[in-house]
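Quick one, tokens below. Sequence please?
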């Protein structure tokens, strides 16, 4: 199947495709591996909880309590939250002074003991601080209320300790499904203890904390991790799609290139083989197809000439045989135009044509020369053959006609083969240029 040079793609275009394909496939493998890792981190509960860190329900209670205290006091007083694993929550001092003071609140929590200690401090404004004071500053923890511009001394007057059961703290975990009414509600009650040497209490202790808010606080870090994983999954998915699209574009270009050579590239071949090797296979396939096409064309020409020659012989045989039934059979064979049948019929009835005169026989032999020469050449052979018939007899004239037939036939075959080689050379020229 010949192709003109204008229809073939420049083979130098394939040179950058192989490194581009290799880069695409390597990056796609990395993207898929990262996607698998992110999916595991996101959707396998044990791993997801591990990277999210341990839940800190007591810290969440302390933070929500600090926010509630700050709201109740309109943020006019400092409210500091700090961790304290070894707390006693019993440092309140006896002080019956009636001087003006500023209250301060410190909330200490312990995940180990499941407890929260709210301590109320006072800072006296009009007199020197007593010796049992404590220095408070912003560095102790996070302040949810009025900021402390500098460290100040204050006296602890009231301690309130709340210890929470494990059943209650487990309700704050992000994987715990809460169904109301809660079973074993009596086991969820917290134990409270107040230490107040001065005998007073505070209405701050009457604050209520919402379970939903504390659960949201506990899940903040978990949600942040999952949001980061979701962002990573989205980015890796988009990059994978872009890389897959890039690889697909290269495949379509390669497929179009090979199609111009009549060669089909499968996705598996594209992924597994070097594109330069695929290009060479397309060139070889195109060359082989050209050779096969030329062979078929040559065989068709030979067959066509054989058919014409056989028909010519049978046409002469129709005029040579005397029997009408034989002529009808020969005409029927000509209509079917089967080469083997025509040769068999000619061999069968050739003897009947031998009853002709020497002039008729010689004329029949000379008629076969018309297929291989021009009319002028035929007239020359005809005159020379009949001259030999008159001067030397039928045998010499017949030998001359047979010899002329063989020479003209060989000349015709050489001309056909030379034309076929020239056509093959013309059709191979574009392929040789592209394969360089």
């Amino acid at each position: 199947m010949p192709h003109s040079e204008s229809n073939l793609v420049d083979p130098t275009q394939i040179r950058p495709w192989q490194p581009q394909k290799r880069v695409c496939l390597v990056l796609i493998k990395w993207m898929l591996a990262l996607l698998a890792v992110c999916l595991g981190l996101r959707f396998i509960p044990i791993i997801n909880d591990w990277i999210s860190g341990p839940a800190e329900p007591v810290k969440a209670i302390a933070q929500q309590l600090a926010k509630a205290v700050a709201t109740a006091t309109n943020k006019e007083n400092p409210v500091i939250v700090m961790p304290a694993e070894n707390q006693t929550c019993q440092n309140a001092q006896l002080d019956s002074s009636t001087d003006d003071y500023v209250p301060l609140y410190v909330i200490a929590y312990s995940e180990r003991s499941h407890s929260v200690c709210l301590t109320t401090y006072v800072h006296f404004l009009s007199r020197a601080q007593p010796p049992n004071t404590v220095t408070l500053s912003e560095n102790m923890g996070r302040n949810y209320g009025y900021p402390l511009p500098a460290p100040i001394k204050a006296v602890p007057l009231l301690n309130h300790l709340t210890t929470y059961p494990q059943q209650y703290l487990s309700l704050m975990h992000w994987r715990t499904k809460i169904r109301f009414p809660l079973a074993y509600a009596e086991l969820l009650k917290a134990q409270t203890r107040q230490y107040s040497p001065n005998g007073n209490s505070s209405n701050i202790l009457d604050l209520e904390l919402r379970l939903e808010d504390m659960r949201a606080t506990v899940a903040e870090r978990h949600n942040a991790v999952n949001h980061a994983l979701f962002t990573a999954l989205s980015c890796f998915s988009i990059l994978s799609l872009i890389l897959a699209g890039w690889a697909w574009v290269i495949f379509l270009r390669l497929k179009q290139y090979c199609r111009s050579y009549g060669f089909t590239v499968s996705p598996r071949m594209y992924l597994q083989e070097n594109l330069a090797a695929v290009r060479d296979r397309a060139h070889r396939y195109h060359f082989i197809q050209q050779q096969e096409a030329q062979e078929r064309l040559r065989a068709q020409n030979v067959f066509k000439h054989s058919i014409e020659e056989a028909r010519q012989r049978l046409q002469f045989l129709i005029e040579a045989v005397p029997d009408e039934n034989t002529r009808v059979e020969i005409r029927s064979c000509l209509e079917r135009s089967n080469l083997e049948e025509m040769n068999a019929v000619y061999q069968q009835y050739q003897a009947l044509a031998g009853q002709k005169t020497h002039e008729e026989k010689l004329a029949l032999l000379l008629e076969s020369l018309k297929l291989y020469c021009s009319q002028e050449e035929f007239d020359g052979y005809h005159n020379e053959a009949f001259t030999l018939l008159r001067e030397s007899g039928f045998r010499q004239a017949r030998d001359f006609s047979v010899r002329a037939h063989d020479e003209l036939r060989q000349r015709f075959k050489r001309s056909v083969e030379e034309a076929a080689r020239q056509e093959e050379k013309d059709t191979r020229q574009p392929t040789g240029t592209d394969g360089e």
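The two ends are 20 Å apart (CA to CA). The chain has three domains: 5-42+230-273, 73-210, 279-432.
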